[in-house]
């Protein structure tokens, strides 16, 4: 936890994009700062340093939070919290289909995609 002038920020370890990736959760306001984990565009999960299974675990972790606003590190700030469950569900389906691994391709969704 970090207290910055009365605002408490929880640090969440959310590997997947990178082993040490973190998201920052401000529970009082419902703000989730997702860094490189969640944004509207192509998620790059094909690099050797990425881990698609860990990505799914991180999406499982953050998708249950009562998020009111998502703040990604890149692209549009017009991003609704429901994208968290859509991404989680897509990653779950990729896993069920045996495609949640490097080299399986690029998968397009409504307003985002993932390159594995």
UniProtKB/TrEMBL annotation:
The lineage of its organism: unclassified sequences, metagenomes, ecological metagenomes. It holds the Pfam family Lactamase_B. Keywords: Hydrolase. It is an enzyme of class 3 (hydrolase). Residues 3-74 form the Metallo-beta-lactamase domain. Its EC number is 3.1.2.6. GO terms for molecular function: hydroxyacylglutathione hydrolase activity. This is Hydroxyacylglutathione hydrolase. It comes from bioreactor metagenome. Gene3D superfamilies: Ribonuclease Z/Hydroxyacylglutathione hydrolase-like.
């Amino acid at each position: 936890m970090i207290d910055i002038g009365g605002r408490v920020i929880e640090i969440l370890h959310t590997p997947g994009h990178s082993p040490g990736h973190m998201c920052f959760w401000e529970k009082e306001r419902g703000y989730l700062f997702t860094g490189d984990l969640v944004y509207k565009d192509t998620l790059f999960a094909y690099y050797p340093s990425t881990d698609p299974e860990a990505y799914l675990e991180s999406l499982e972790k953050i998708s249950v939070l009562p998020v009111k606003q998502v703040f990604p590190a890149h692209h549009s700030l017009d991003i609704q919290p429901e994208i968290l469950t859509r991404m989680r569900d897509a990653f779950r389906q990729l896993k069920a289909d045996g495609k949640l691994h490097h080299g399986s391709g690029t998968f397009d969704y409504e307003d985002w995609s993932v390159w594995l």
